[in-house]
From TrEMBL:
InterPro entries: MFS, MFS_trans_sf. The keyword GTP-binding does not apply. It is a multi-pass membrane protein. The chain crosses the membrane at residues 330-353, 365-387, 399-419, 511-532, 544-563, 569-591, 603-620, 640-659. It comes from the Eukaryota. Keywords: Membrane, Transmembrane, Transmembrane helix, Transport. This is Major facilitator superfamily domain-containing protein. The keyword Metal-binding does not apply. It is found in: Membrane. Pfam families: MFS_1. SUPFAM superfamilies: MFS general substrate transporter. Signal peptide: none annotated.
Length: 697
């Protein structure tokens, strides 16, 4: 539906009878309803202020000429008045969407008397006003109208926010009159929370602050370039070294080090175990060399942890040039795991400082396209670099490690100056004395985030998580279904992806050909990742849409198990089909963050989710074994069974959150409005335990 909120100034000490003598006020009512249709024709643009003035010729061209009677009205972006008039009544016009459009319902809210009356456009407005509103004679002045679009709750998307903010979360861009802080008591409560927490952006918190949709869209685009793009580049530098080993082994690295498939699996297991240990949510009070998502929460991912991690893993990856035996390989993999662990939850938490919950999935989808981008670009690079075998007496894989280490080292150096702590801390010698955002832009950034999720200000971004806080998050049993999905969801495509180039070599392809033949899978993987994440956001659905990743792989695994002796090109096509699956990691990470409902829970739960994903990676690294090569028939049967299990897990997780929301809703509705308000202001419940919070699913 379309909702219009109009602030109407009603002159004092006026007589009702005079209103019958003119139809100006009724005309304004009609104008607002027509303006709603104008907006509907213009793709439901949100948060427009409407002013009744003669339309300009330029504006007339922008409105559908099939409705000439609407051209009398101009839609413009008017600044709000700096002060309130003596009497303010809020008029809400609700217009259902659809071809058969029933009369809009109009509600007048007298803020001083705290009363409301409703009617529809089919009622005589003059008579309605005469009966319902007294002390009115001269025409009311409509000085600002805010139009927004409210979406129906369909799609199974769940809530994922405080109940007070359910409506405002449906607004795409721009401020609205009705938001979580509209109630002065609730605004005062959260202001006190932010002050006690030392929230770094509290000086920009303003419940009465207003902005329009165009400003917010422009600001989001600016952040996409400055924040998301840089996060993507840093992630590329991570995956550059996580996956270059898969290209190196196509250049006879294993036989040159006296290793076989099992030895390689052990090395990868050591790497992942170290990676997992580094991500343990340890409540460390002092800076230690062990990188962790929660150490980053204490020290600041921007100030120390992430830049040092990138520099560290670049040096360690370059050191692989000098390994000569299996023991060296194991040691380097362990150290690289420690250096890389924690990076992903740190950066995801950093992104939540800038983006609303409904904006995050698509940004994370782009973030994870780094996987396929790196694989495509580095497969092309590897095809050339591995031809350098013999130069300087080195093998091709040694040159590969050295050149890629130098590339990521440059990223690590720039990370020290290109990661601001938050939206209000962008000023620096490198980013400029005025920073990235103006004062007004900072107000927009902070207030749009807090109105979307007030809990984002309940903790300072330099505050660590205590042992008590850690234990509390671990006890959040309602988060565990997502952790279990994280363990299992990515096991099926893991072994084929890790061994693809080696499998191609065993089928007779050269090093050059094996690396180039991996590119189609990575390209399709990136496309499907973005498409899946888009549809998840579009339909506000997580569980069902994320499960499509498993349905995609099911047919390909079934075929590869049913046709174990198929020809080379048939097996290649099936492997490409498996590896081009729609990656649901961005959806699940955003799902975990949204269901956390507090900064502390979000910091720990995101790290825990990534840890469980690494557990799954450790499992899949040991599914393809030396005695099962080259076709890995036994391993593929195990992976097919995992796909079937995952489909069930996704549906059970969806059903679990539907059930939990139903239980919460029953308890909430059993409370009187006074009890609900008292609960919001006094409850000690935190995170997903709050009764006014609904899980997304």
């Amino acid at each position: 539906m379309i909702v219009i909120d109009a602030c109407i100034e009603l002159p004092q000490n006026c007589l009702t009878d005079d209103l019958q003598q003119n139809n100006l006020f009724e005309d304004r009512i009609s104008f607002i309803c027509l303006g709603c249709i104008v907006q509907q024709l213009r793709h439901h643009k949100s948060n427009r202020n409407i002013d009744k003035r003669p339309a300009t010729s330029d504006h007339s061209q922008s409105i559908n000429t099939k409705y000439p009677e609407l051209l009398r009205y101009r839609v413009s972006l008017l600044p709000p008045k700096s002060r309130h008039p003596t009497d303010i009544h809020i008029m809400r016009v609700t217009v259902p969407l659809g071809r058969a459009m029933p009369p809009p319902e109009i509600t007048f809210q007298d803020e001083k008397k705290n009363t409301a009356v409703s009617t529809t456009t089919s009622t005589s407005f003059v008579g309605f006003l005469k009966d319902k509103i007294t002390s009115i004679s001269s025409p009311a002045s409509v000085y600002q109208v805010s139009l927004t679009e409210e979406l129906g709750g369909g799609g199974g998307g769940g809530g994922g926010t405080n109940l007070k903010d359910d409506a405002s979360n449906n607004y795409l861009y721009g401020s609205t009159p009705d938001h979580v802080f509209s109630d002065p008591a609730i605004a005062a409560y959260w202001a006190d929370v932010y002050e006690r927490a030392g929230y770094e952006n509290r000086h920009r918190f303003d419940p009465s602050f207003q902005w329009d949709a165009s400003e917010e869209r422009k600001l989001v685009r600016k952040m996409d370039v400055r924040v998301v793009l840089w996060a993507w580049i840093m992630f590329c530098s991570l995956d550059l070294h996580r996956k270059n080993i898969n290209r190196a082994i196509s250049d006879d690295m294993l036989p040159e080090l006296g290793m076989n498939t099992n030895d390689f699996n052990y090395g990868q297991t050591i790497f992942l175990a170290s990676f997992l240990l580094a991500e343990l949510p340890l409540p460390l009070p002092l800076p230690l060399p062990l990188p962790s998502g929660l150490v980053a929460k204490k020290l600041g991912a921007d100030r120390f942890v992430v830049p040092m991690q990138i520099v560290s893993w670049s040096i360690l990856s370059g050191a692989q040039v000098w390994i000569t035996k299996r023991a060296h390989f194991y040691v380097i993999k362990a150290l690289m795991g420690f250096a890389m662990g924690g990076f992903i939850p740190e950066v995801v938490l950093w992104l939540t400082y800038f983006y609303k919950s409904n904006e995050l999935p698509l940004r994370l989808a782009f973030f994870w396209t780094a996987l396929s981008t790196v694989n495509i670009a580095c497969s092309l690079m590897a095809a050339g670099i591995l031809q350098m075998r013999g130069i300087g007496g080195w093998s091709g894989w040694q040159w590969l490690f050295l050149i890629e280490a130098l590339m990521s080292l440059v990223v690590g150096i720039f990370a020290f100056v290109l990661m601001p702590p938050g939206p209000c801390q962008t000023k620096s010698w490198f980013r400029g004395k005025d920073g990235w955002f103006s004062e007004r832009e900072e107000f927009i950034l902070v207030n749009r985030l807090l109105r979307d999720d007030p809990s984002k200000g309940d903790m300072n971004n330099r505050e660590g998580v205590s042992a008590t806080g850690l234990l509390k998050v671990l006890k959040e049993w309602e988060m565990w279904p997502l952790y279990i999905v994280g363990v299992c969801a990515y096991i099926p495509p893991g072994p084929p992806g890790e061994y693809l180039s080696l499998i191609l070599r065993t089928h007779g392809f050269s090093v050059f050909q094996a690396n180039l033949l991996t590119i189609p899978a990575y390209f399709l993987f990136a496309c499907n990742l973005v498409i899946l994440s888009y549809f998840s956001k579009r339909f506000k659905e997580r569980g069902f849409i994320a499960s499509l990743s498993q349905w995609w792989m099911l047919s390909f695994f079934a075929a590869i198990v049913a046709l174990p002796d198929a020809g080379v090109w048939v097996r290649y096509a099936l492997l490409i089909g498996i590896l081009s699956y729609p990656y649901c990691h961005a959806i699940l990470v955003a799902w975990t963050a949204e269901n956390s409902n507090s900064v502390q829970t979000r910091a720990v739960s995101t790290a825990l989710y990534i840890m469980f994903v690494q557990d799954g990676n450790i499992i899949y690294d040991n599914i393809y074994r030396e005695d099962d090569k080259p076709l890995y028939k036994r391993g593929n049967r195990v992976l097919l069974a995992m796909v079937c299990l995952n489909i069930v897990l996704f549906y059970l997780t969806k059903a679990f959150y539907v059930w939990r929301n139903k239980v919460k809703e029953e308890k909430w509705k059993a409370m009187t409005p006074e009890e609900q308000r008292d609960y919001v202001l006094t409850t000690l419940d935190e995170g997903p335990k709050r009764l006014d919070f609904r899980f997304v699913h």
